[in-house]
Amino acid sequence: MLARVYSCAMIGLDGVVVEVEVDYTSGFPGMTIVGLPDAAIQESRERVQAAVRNAGVPFPRKRLVVNLAPASVRKEGPAYDLPIALGVLIYTGMLPPEAAEGTMVVGELSLDGTVRHARGVLPMAATARQAGFKRIVVPEADAAEAALIPDLEVIPVSSLGVLYNHLAGRKPVPAYTRLEVEDAPLFPPTDFGEVKGQEHVKRALEVAAAGGHNVLMIGPPGSGKTLLARALPGILPKMSIDEALDVTRIYSVADQLPPETPLLRNRPFRAPHHTISHAGLVGGGNWPHPGEISLAHHGVLFLDELPEFGMRVLEVLRQPLEDKVVTISRAQGSLTFPASFQLVGARNPCPCR
Ligand SMILES: Nc1ncnc2c1ncn2[C@@H]1O[C@H](COP(=O)(O)OP(=O)(O)OP(=O)(O)O)[C@@H](O)[C@H]1O
Ligand SMILES: [Mg+2]
User: Fold this and answer.
1) Which of 137, 149, 261, 342 maximizes the CB count within 10 A of its CB?
2) Which pLDDT belongs to residue 179?
3) Can you give the pLDDT at residue 332?
């Protein structure tokens, strides 16, 4: 009997609900995955088969076919392992078909059935909430991130076996409730008060902070330019909860969110080295990922030793500086990432003077 489980694909920062269907076809025992999967999903065949066996369930001696719908959306990453494995359990009759109703499932599997961290859990949970799902099953490590979305039950699972026992009603997993603990800040700012003297520069930075202006600091080596730039985020207004969620969503998709910091409350401070590539700065890659300018969204992008950045690299900053977003075009389509940052540059005076 056909089994159906729901998961989520990410297109840039937006999620799309994906139906994972499991059925069988004629052929040698094994598994075929269709529906525009990338290499990581093709490899999920091996992980799912091993994990299902290690959860104590014999893998069906049939040719299973897994369809990821809608087929027009490209799927990437290993987060479909868990929904596929769950689909197999339902298909074999180990779980009733209604076990996964109203539930979105994401997670990568190890061969022993352990569920590993998945990136993009926050926007996926937001998509689940929007699409009317009641609950989301996530890796244990990502539960705090998913719990940022209100009115959505979060079921943290550590292994396929745990999920199996939960859905079979043998050993229910309690829904995750967020503890109000102080998160470890990812960007602890330098204290502005530590900067001695330099009253005119500090005044200029205060004006920039109040008005959201871009700044260029020119001064001899050792005059404190780097120090002053690092102190700027500390005097910027606190992020609103919506801004914090916006920023966290970007870090979640870029897989740069540490597990002990489910919500980024401090404004980001990004200081890429001048050897950075185009794609690293504005975002890109085969599957477009957010670049430094998007990771600096609602925060500060600090380009130290500004003239060392190549002319071409600086030119690509023009459009995002004006539009506050960056659009990356690829053969598969174009994606827009937010990039509303404050640019701070520092350089030494021209040697000709
Ligand atoms: N006004 C200041 N108050 C406190 N510390 C300062 C001040 N100016 C410089 N320093 C200290 O001096 C050292 C050098 O400063 P910093 O690296 O910020 O200089 P810089 O202008 O960036 O130099 P470079 O052009 O070589 O990059 C740092 O350890 C910094 O903490
Ligand atoms: Mg410096």
Assistant:
1) 137
2) 66
3) 73
What pLDDT is attached to residue 1? 75
CA of 238 from ligand 1 middle (Å) equals 26
What is the pLDDT at residue 146? 94
Nearest CA, atom 4, ligand 1: 195
Give every residue of the chain whose pLDDT is below 50, as ranges: none
Closest atom, ligand 1, to C-alpha of 348: 25
Residues with CB under 6 A from ligand 1: 195-198, 219, 221-227, 348
**N-terminal to C-terminal alpha carbon distance within the chain:** 79
Please classify residue 39 by burial: count the beta carbons closer than 10 Å to its beta carbon, then call 0-12 exposed, 13-18 middle and 19+ buried.
exposed
Whether residue 296 contacts residue 327, with contact meaning beta carbons closer than 8 Å, is answered with: no
**Which CATH number does 192-347 carry?**
3.40.50.300
Q: Residue 16 forms beta bridges with which residues?
A: 9
Pocket test for ligand 1, best of 194, 227, 232 (most atoms within 8 A of CB): 227
Token output for 23: 């059925």
pLDDT of residue 82: 96
pLDDT at residue 343, rounded to an integer: 96
Between the CA of 304 and the centroid of ligand 2 the distance, in Å, is 6
Sequence ranges of the domains in the chain = 3-167, 192-347
Task: Say which ligand is closest to the CA of 348.
Answer: 1
Whole-model pTM?
0.89
The architecture in CATH of the region 3-167 reads: 2-Layer Sandwich (3.30)
Q: What pLDDT score does 184 carry? A: 65
319 Cα distance to chain centroid: 24
d(CA 215, CA 346): 8
